[in-house]
Specification:
Blueprint (H helix, E strand, L loop, with lengths): L2 E5 L5 H10 L3 E5 L3 H9 L3 E2 L3 H5 L4 E4 L4 H9 L4 H4 L5 E4 L5 H13 L3 E4 L2 E2 L1 H6 L3 E6 L2 H11 L3 E8 L3 H29 L4 H9 L6 H6 L21 H18 L4 H15 L25 H7 L5
Parallel strand pairs: 1-2, 1-4, 2-3, 4-5, 5-6, 8-9
Antiparallel strand pairs: 7-8
Helix pairs in contact: 4-6, 9-12, 9-13, 12-13
C-alpha cells in the first residue's frame, strides 16, 4: 500500500481520501478549515500542519482546491508542493482550473524533475461519497497509468484523455455541457409545474425520453422527486452557484481563446451571475430554476429560512 498526501479536505476531499484509507493506503492531509480537518480525522486521515509534513515519504500527492489561484499557491509557494516533493512522488491535481494553470503545473513540474498528471473529476459530492467519480487524466502515458492505480478506489471511471492538459480540457467542456443541461432541466421542470403535471410523473417521462440528462437523473430541482436533490433541503449546495460560475466562466474563457462560439454557455453563465448578484452564490446551482418561474418563487426554496438561520429574523 502507498502513502498519499492529500491537500484540500473539503466536501469532495474528505470522502475521496476516506476511500483511499479504506483501500489500505496511509493518507496524510492538509486542511485549513477546522471543521473539515475534524471530519477528515474522523475518517482515518492523518491531518498534519504543513505540505512538507504531508509529502514526507509520500508515493503520491493529490490536490482538491477551489480555484486556480489556490492551485498555483499550493504548488508554487515557498512552502508548497514543488518545493518539497520528491522526484518519486506522483503529483495529481483534481481541481477544476483554467488550461493555462494546468499547463503551468506540468511545465513547472517538468522543470524541477517532478511528475505531474492533471486529474480533474466529475460526479459531485454524491460521486465522491459513493466512490463512483469519473477521473479524466492528462499526462505522459506511463504517468497516467500510474495515476490510474492510485485513483481507482475513488473512481467509477478512469479515462486517459491524452497528453498534458487533456484531462482539464475534457473537464471544462464536460462541465459546460452540464450547466447548459441544468438550464434546460430547470426550464422544463417549471413549465411542467405550470402546466399542472405531477412532478414525479413528468420526471419519469423525461427520464426515459429525449429530455433525459445526468442533471435530470441526479439534481431534479423540485422537492419530493429525487432523495438527494438540493430541492429537498432548501437548495443547500451539492454544487454551489459560486463554484458553478467559476467552472462555467473557465469554459467560456476557453471558448474565447480558441474562437469557439458558446452562446448557450454564455446564457448559463449570465444566469449564475444573476443568482450571485441576488446574494445566492452559496446555494445550489440548480437554483437557476428560480429564474424560470413566473414570479421568481420556487417550490422547495424559502429565502426566509436562510435569514432565520443566520439570525436576521426573530
Amino acid at each position: 500500500m502507498s502513502t498519499i498526501a492529500f491537500i484540500g479536505l473539503g466536501r469532495m476531499g474528505v470522502p475521496m481520501a476516506s476511500h483511499l484509507v479504506a483501500a489500505g493506503h496511509t493518507v496524510r492531509g492538509v486542511e485549513i478549515n477546522p471543521a473539515a480537518a475534524a471530519a477528515a480525522t474522523a475518517h482515518g486521515i492523518e491531518v498534519v500542519g504543513s505540505v512538507a509534513q504531508a509529502l514526507e515519504g509520500a508515493d503520491a500527492c493529490l490536490t482538491s482546491l477551489p480555484k486556480p489561484e489556490h492551485v498555483r499557491a499550493v504548488y508554487g509557494g515557498a512552502d508548497g508542493i514543488f518545493a518539497h516533493a520528491a522526484a518519486s512522488t506522483l503529483l495529481m491535481d483534481t481541481s477544476t482550473v483554467d488550461i493555462e494553470t494546468s499547463r503551468w503545473c506540468h511545465a513547472e513540474a517538468e522543470s524541477r524533475g517532478l511528475t505531474f498528471v492533471d486529474a480533474p473529476i466529475s460526479g459531485g459530492t454524491a460521486g465522491a461519497e459513493a466512490h463512483t467519480l469519473t477521473f479524466m487524466l492528462g499526462g505522459g502515458a506511463g504517468d497516467v497509468e500510474r495515476a490510474r492505480e492510485i485513483v481507482a478506489p475513488m473512481a467509477g471511471n478512469v479515462i486517459a484523455c491524452g497528453g498534458a492538459g487533456a484531462g482539464i480540457a475534457a473537464k471544462l467542456a464536460n462541465n459546460m455541457m452540464l450547466f447548459i443541461s441544468v438550464m434546460a432541466m430547470s426550464e422544463g421542470s417549471q413549465l411542467a409545474e405550470q402546466l399542472g403535471l405531477d412532478a414525479k410523473t413528468f420526471w419519469e417521462v423525461a427520464r426515459v425520453s429525449s429530455g433525459d440528462s445526468w442533471a435530470l437523473r441526479t439534481w431534479y430541482p423540485v422537492p419530493g422527486v429525487l432523495e438527494k436533490s438540493a430541492a429537498n433541503n432548501n437548495f443547500e449546495p451539492t454544487f454551489s452557484v459560486d463554484l458553478a460560475r467559476k467552472d462555467c466562466g473557465l469554459a467560456v474563457l476557453a471558448g474565447e481563446t480558441t474562437g469557439v462560439h458558446l452562446p448557450a454557455a454564455r446564457l448559463a453563465l449570465s444566469q449564475l451571475d444573476e443568482l450571485i448578484a441576488d446574494g445566492l452564490g452559496g446555494k445550489d446551482c440548480t437554483l437557476v430554476a428560480r429564474l424560470a418561474s413566473p414570479d421568481g418563487t420556487l417550490r422547495g426554496f424559502d429565502p426566509q429560512q436562510d435569514a432565520t438561520m443566520n439570525g436576521a429574523l426573530v
